[in-house]
Write a structure and sequence with these properties.
The chain has 181 residues and is an alpha+beta fold. It contains 6 helices and 6 strands, in the order βββαβααβαααβ. It folds into 2 domains: 102 residues, GIY-YIG endonuclease (3-Layer(aba) Sandwich); 65 residues, no CATH class. It has a 4-stranded antiparallel β-sheet with strand order 1-4-2-3, sandwiched between helices. A two-stranded antiparallel ribbon has the order 5-6. The radius of gyration is 18 Å and the shape is elongated.
């Protein structure tokens, strides 16, 4: 059990494969409260965060940043305490010397729904901005963009061997956003 004075150094924790040999995320973390550190393929720290359900958060990060989620280190706690979680997060970031990119300039890419509008092709953009299109036509265009981006993400994850089911929230697609259900 972690207390405020007993923060384990990040370096002392074991690496856990983000996607195991069976293509699953670390299921032992389902429903667990804790702090987690995400590392890329070369075990370079990318992001430190905390959650009331570490498993769901890891799943969300994998969808948002599939090329940067290869390893994870986790410290769970029994009772929710924002202070304890924030202190561990802060200590791990300080231990890393520099702020991980996911906690700095790229924080939105790690913590916010994917904005499909930001990756529209020139053709999709022109079609979307066509004055002849009414609101329903624009919603249809943006939903198709979101579906394309979703398919690209799922293809990358399939290539990584992921077997865990990924379901995006269909209502958000109308807004051009991708987030897990």
């Amino acid at each position: 059990m972690t207390t405020e004075t007993n923060i384990p150094p990040l370096a002392s924790l074991e690496y856990i494969a983000y996607i195991d040999e069976d293509g699953q995320l670390p299921e032992q973390l389902q429903g667990k409260i804790g702090v987690y550190a995400i590392f890329d393929q070369k075990q370079v720290l990318q992001y430190v965060g905390y959650s009331r359900d570490v498993y769901l958060s890891l799943k969300q990060h994998l969808v948002r940043q599939p090329q940067k989620c290869y390893w994870v280190k986790v410290q769970t706690i029994e009772r929710p305490s924002r202070t304890v979680l924030e202190n561990i997060e802060k200590a791990w970031i300080e231990e890393n010397v520099s702020v991980p990119v996911g906690n700095g300039d790229d924080k939105e890419k790690w913590t916010q729904p994917i904005n499909a509008k930001a990756v529209m092709t020139a053709e999709e953009q022109a079609n979307y901005e066509n004055p002849a299109n009414d609101e329903m036509a624009k919603i249809k265009i943006i939903k198709n963009v979101a579906r394309r981006v979703e398919a690209e993400i799922l293809k990358v994850l399939e290539g990584r061997g992921l077997q865990t089911q990924i379901r995006f929230n269909p209502k958000l697609k109308e807004e051009g956003l991708l987030d897990l259900k």
